[in-house]
Amino acid sequence: xxxxxxxxxxxxxxxxxxxxxxxxxxxSARVAAGPDAPPLKSLADFPIxxxxxxxxxxxxxxxxxxxxxxxxxxPEWELKPERIxxxxxxxxxxxxxxxxxxxxxxxxxxxxxxxxxYSQGLDLFTDALxxxxxxxxxxxYVATVAGRYRGRMVGWDVVNEAVAEDGDGLxxxxxxxxxxxxxxxxxxxxxARAADPDAVLFLNDYNLENNPRKGATFxxxxxxxxxxxxxxxxxGTQSHLDIxxxxxxxxxxxxxxxxxxxxxxxxxxxxxxERDGGRxxxxxxxxxxxxxxxxxxxxxxxxxxxxxxxxxxxFTTWGLRDPDSWLVRAEGKNRPDESALLLDxxxxxxxxxxxxxxxxxx
Length: 362
Ligand code: GLA
What we know:
Elements: H1 10-14, E1 48-52, H2 60-69, E2 72-75, H3 81-84, E3 85-86, E4 90-91, H4 94-105, E5 109-117, H5 131-148, E6 155-160, H6 174-179, H7 183-195, E7 200-205, H8 212-227, E8 234-237, H9 249-258, E9 264-269, H10 286-305, E10 312-317, H11 326-329, H12 351-361
Parallel strand pairs: 1-2, 1-10, 2-5, 5-6, 6-7, 7-8, 8-9, 9-10
Antiparallel strand pairs: 3-4
């Protein structure tokens, strides 16, 4: 793996600062204090990733934290159709170029997110557009964006969130209606493969661990797409975790996903403490909820480690430190002190950090 730090004695590095009781995972459910967390990337022999945005590039504290902790950056917005696609099927690469250039200048791997997403591009890709034009513009978009960064991206989320919200079949969207419910996905992968033959191409989705029905639908879809010849090189599980799901559910998803034999990307990990942004009454103490976070995040990291080495593609959090999280930015989704990521605002380890470190050290 490029940019690996020298080998570290993981157990020694991780010992004292957190003041944790090693044999009792729930004992780690305390507010973190003390020095900077040891670099996340020193814990793993696979890439550790986080998202970044153009607005953060001028923040020296954020830059230092990224370079300390991660090997890989996923631009959070800049490679999405809503940022690139302009009226008249014109393209604007100013922000995406900046992110990709910055990542390379810093020696980071750059991961692309995302070429096709049901919720974006809808001003132009409409049901009313004649199908031949729709198809031509669809192909041109995927080929142009993937081709612009040919050889510079380690991978791409080619299609994001293709499975229906509740896991019952595929999502109804304009791309499916115009090009065929699976054909649009195959087509996107083929265009991306031709445009950038070396990037690993991912189908990415969410709630795969949270909703076993959706996880199963997703994996069956991958099998069918592969059978149709789609050049899928890996599967992405966003892992916006619902920390209240039963123990074992995450492990079971990884067992099933691993059986496909493809690399797996934990692509957008976070773990909000509040369900539904706190709109559901929950009388438990913060400590109890933290314990629940630590347990589920630990289960996820352990499940990832049960994969054979060649299937551990990367482990990416959606934001690096708590205040970087979309959950904090999106009003009401999570409070900054609820530790939805591995690092707090000062770059110190949140409680779940130790669970991940322990799992990676095994
Ligand atoms: C989804 C998308 C991401 C991001 C997050 C949260 O998971 O894949 O690009 O938008 O939602 O905002």
